[in-house]
Design brief:
about 90 residues, mainly alpha, 5 helices, globular
């Protein structure tokens, strides 16, 4: 079976140049809008949470604060640089 070209979103997110990565780092910060978006999920101690498309991990780190040591956050991203950044951000907390 022959596959067609890779979809745009995959190539767009897999390889991100340093300038674009810096913009995502700055832009994907936890904010009041995020708090309002996730409020109805009532994420708290002991929960298990999945963050698909975690980017630099700001949401995953905030969710980790909320679930505490008894919970777990799984952060996924197609871009390995974002996965590494999420790990670094989590270790800084």
């Amino acid at each position: 079976m022959t596959r067609g070209p890779e979809p745009f979103y995959k190539s767009h997110w897999r390889k991100i140049g340093e300038a674009r990565l810096a913009r995502y780092r700055a832009g994907f910060q936890w904010s009041e809008a995020d708090r309002l978006l996730y409020a109805s999920a009532d994420i708290g101690a002991g929960h298990r949470v999945a963050d698909f498309g975690a980017g630099p991990g700001h949401t995953a780190v905030e969710m980790a604060r909320r679930v505490g040591a008894e919970g777990h956050v799984f952060a996924f991203d197609i871009n390995p640089d974002f996965v590494a950044e999420t790990r670094r951000n989590a270790q800084l907390e």
